[in-house]
Amino acid sequence: MNIWVDADACPVVIKEILFRAAVRTKLVVTLVANQPIEIPASHHIKFLQVRQGFDVADNEIVRRMQPGDLVITSDIPLAADVIEKHGIALSPRGEQYTANNIKARLNMRDFMETLRSSGVNTGGPPALNQADRKAFADHLDQILTRHTKRS
């Protein structure tokens, strides 16, 4: 299993949790972004910079990931592509996207986009809080534990 991170929008605190997990589990975590990101020195933490452009990082993650890989993203269409390729998609808030819930998430995303494009101020997501961080760390740990039991 490799861990891919849609890093442009990933909160720093989530990256730090992933860095610790990479060192602990010896799994490779690759951050993909279109701007430079500082990473700690480790054989298990990598950075891939892609060119600027709409969905360039997302497309590169989908192109490189393999079935069973874990992708950290809050991007619903990217999560849908990951699931279609038999990967695991986890949001920075600790929500695991699955074949059972991704269609509803895509529909809600499209609905909110329609509202925004018609001028309705829908606001943004709330700031990441301690409960979100714990949910992410707990779900990440569950996924990594299941992986190590299978290996």
Quick description:
The chain has about 150 residues and is α/β, with parallel strands linked by helices.
Secondary-structure element order, N to C: EHEEHEHEEHH
User: Between the first and last Cα atoms, what is the distance in angstroms?
Assistant: 9 Å
Give the proportion of residues in helices: 40-55%
Principal-axes geometry comes out as: globular
Order of strands in the sheet with most strands? 3-2-1-4-5-6
Strand tally, please?
6
Q: Biggest sheet, open or closed, and with what strands and sense?
A: 6 strands, mixed
The whole-angstrom Rg is 15 Å
Q: How many helices does DSSP assign?
A: 5
- Provide the structure class: alpha/beta
Unreliable residue stretches: none
Mean pLDDT: 91
Percent range for β-strand residues = 5-15%
Describe this structure in words.
With 151 residues, this protein is of the alpha/beta class. It contains 5 helices and 6 strands, in the order βαββαβαββαα. The chain has helices at 12-25, 56-64, 76-84, 102-117, 130-150; strands spanning 3-6, 29-33, 45-49, 70-72, 88-90, 96-97. α1 packs parallel to α5 and α3 packs antiparallel against α4 (102-117).
Name its key features.
alpha/beta, 46% helix, 151 residues
List the helices and strands and how they pair.
Elements lengths: L2 E4 L5 H14 L3 E5 L11 E5 L6 H9 L5 E3 L3 H9 L3 E3 L5 E2 L4 H16 L12 H21 L1
